[in-house]
Design brief:
heterodimer, A: mainly alpha, about 0% strand, B: Rossmann fold, Alpha-Beta Plaits, 12 helices, 14 strands
Chain lengths: ~270, ~350
């Protein structure tokens, strides 16, 4: 599959993906509003912080953290793992494999195409964030400059990890339980439920080097202006290092999986 | 255009007995079995040929088509399609082929077919002029105009299959693999699909390899048939030749102006169907001339016709013979296609 074909086809893939997202608008909205865990956690921690700051977080600090978490989560979500496992089980992956375009390129476009609609939901979150917790946000232009790269890295990492686990359905009878396990660990170690700097030092040390941080916590840290310039660059490099690592893993797992592919059903 | 040499394809499948106990046992101890779906198959198809691929369910037809289209890697053997090795799935190979599966669809379910057409135009990088010309041609041949703007989920099965065919042929493939393209369609839609496939084959000199359970598809479309059973090719040749070989008898249809007693008909051949106004006889090739002559001179005939036996019957006979041979060759081994069994921990 040539890169040229992928680049030429990508706008059409995005357009079709957007049309599909619009067609599924009700389901899409329900999914978006079900991403409410950061708001629940915000309510909890804001209540705890009423009597005084928790670690580095005041009440406003928690507002800023969880709204930024919600924003990053909304804008970096993907669902390729569900699509892949379903299409492998039902044998419909075959139809994608017959086209002269890598199925993962098509999946990536379908996932990315939902971003404009997600943006519509994310905009009010940004508005509330700016209105209620502006003082807690970072003011360093350098960190804001690398923020889009960190968001792209977080989306790519989310997509690649999902794609790796989804591709494992070519080897396992079902990969979804594996993904549930990943989600469970990720909810804790990515900072989705609790800011990483509230964990004991031993847990923090582990969490800071695992890939989970780069899925969510790292972009949130940039919004809050936490890292120094040097740390920001280092973390960005580490995030993209993980992107390359999971890309390599995906390529290997995909190749090996296709050799075993049985194209079940019909 | 298609060359297959000693193709074998095996699957590893997990076997377990029904019931809770077997389910629990399979948690710790998994019985794996190697099933040979295609067994040392060799054949060639020339450019522009239309070949019917026949066989009972599970004979290996679809597996062969999937190997030929690059979806499955062969266990052994060599396969070449349009000068390329399918399992490499190179872009140039995929641009030359299409696989239409009657039970699967590539149309986007919630969007109108025209969206899938545009998407495929981009994916196959079809020049605009060629796209418009092909689409116009397909639209007129398949009468697609009223369907293009409706969401796919609102189309009937037949309408969907017409759009599936169109989207699969938009890039003008040179090789068509059609797996049960008429399944579930009514008789008139089946005829539409058949005449369309023939028109496409003639217009673009495309090679067609078709599987179908409807014998009419094969009889009308395919001058050559490949019969596969238990993963092996058991016949390769013209359809007429297959009929001759399996059921050399002819069917003599008699329409009578008044009833004739059975005993007066029995000397002419075996009675297949008996009625007061119509009778069908099965007559051997050697006896045909004399039987027809006697019928013409001795019976009160309104009409007489001589036909080959129905294809369904020929195929039933062929596969029944195959099964009998199989039983003799493999007494009580639990299936011919089980290449080996291994026990393994999960």
């Amino acid at each position: 599959m040539s890169v040229r074909t992928a680049i030429r086809a990508y706008p059409a893939l995005l357009r079709t993906g957007f049309a599909a997202a619009v067609a599924y608008r009700a389901e899409f909205l329900i999914w978006m509003f079900s991403t409410n865990m950061p708001l629940i956690m915000l309510a909890l921690w804001a209540a705890v912080a009423r009597s005084g700051p928790v670690g580095p977080y005041s009440q406003r600090g928690f507002v800023a953290y969880y709204l930024a978490t919600l924003l990053v989560r909304l804008m970096t979500g993907a669902w390729v793992v569900w699509e892949l496992t379903m299409e492998i089980r039902q044998g419909t992956l075959a139809l994608r494999l017959l086209r002269p375009l890598h199925p993962l390129v098509a999946y990536s476009a379908e996932n990315l195409a939902a971003l404009p609609l997600r943006g519509v939901i994310a905009l009010p979150v940004v508005g509330i964030l700016l209105w209620s917790a502006r003082s807690q946000l970072g003011h360093d232009p350098f960190l804001w400059a690398i923020f889009p790269l960190a968001m792209l890295g977080a989306w790519l990492l989310t997509f690649l990890v999902m794609a790796v686990i989804g591709t494992l359905a070519l080897f396992l009878e079902s990969a979804t339980s594996l993904f549930e396990a990943w989600l469970g660990i990720s909810a804790v170690l990515s900072g989705y439920l609790i800011p990483l700097d509230l964990f004991p030092h031993s847990v923090q040390r582990v969490a800071l080097v695992l890939p989970f941080r780069f899925l969510l916590s790292f972009p949130v840290e940039l919004v809050l202006g936490r890292p120094t310039h040097g740390d920001g660059v280092l973390l960005l490099a580490a995030q993209w290092g993980y992107v390359l690592f999971f890309f390599a893993v995906l390529t290997a797992v995909w190749r090996a999986g296709l050799r075993r592919y049985a194209a079940y059903g019909g | 255009m298609i060359a297959v040499e000693h193709l074998t394809k095996e699957y590893r499948v997990h076997r377990r007995d029904p019931g809770l106990r077997a389910a629990l046992r399979s948690l710790v101890r998994r019985r794996m079995e190697t099933v040979r779906a295609v067994d040392d198959v060799t054949f060639e198809v020339a450019a522009g040929e239309r070949v019917g691929f026949l066989g009972p369910n599970g004979a290996g037809k679809t597996t062969t088509l999937k190997v030929l289209s690059g979806l499955l890697h062969p266990t052994s053997g060599k396969v070449t399609v349009a000068g390329e090795t399918p399992k490499e799935r190179s872009a140039s190979f995929l641009r030359q082929i299409t696989l239409v599966m009657g039970q699967k669809q590539q149309l986007l379910w919630d969007l109108p077919p025209s969206e899938t057409f545009l998407l495929n135009r981009a994916i196959y990088d079809i020049p605009r002029a060629q796209y418009e010309e092909t689409l116009a041609e397909l639209t007129s041949l398949l009468d697609l105009a009223p369907l293009l703007g409706k969401p796919t989920r609102q189309l009937s099965l037949g309408e969907r299959m017409k759009c599936e065919l169109a989207v699969a042929l938009l890039h003008r493939p040179r090789v068509l693999f059609l797996d049960e393209p008429t399944i579930g369609l009514d008789v008139s839609m089946q005829a539409t699909v058949r005449s369309f496939v023939r028109a496409y084959n003639e217009r673009f000199s495309a090679t067609v390899l078709l599987t179908s359970h409807y014998m009419d598809d094969v009889a009308e479309l395919c001058p050559r048939v490949l019969v596969i059973d238990h993963g092996r090719v058991i016949f390769d040749g013209a359809l007429g030749e297959l009929v001759q070989r399996i059921r050399p008898d002819k069917r003599v249809q008699l329409r009578l102006s008044r009833p004739v007693a059975r005993r007066d008909l029995e000397p002419l051949g075996t009675i297949v169907q008996y009625g007061e106004e119509a009778v069908t006889l099965q007559v051997s090739h050697d006896q045909l001339q004399s039987s027809v002559q006697r019928a013409l001179t001795q019976l009160p005939l309104r009409d007489l016709s001589v036909e080959d036996p129905p294809l369904e019957e020929v195929m039933r006979e062929l596969f029944a013979r195959g099964a009998r041979t199989e039983e003799r060759a493999l007494p009580a081994t639990g299936g011919a296609r089980s290449a080996q069994q291994t026990d393994g921990a999960a």
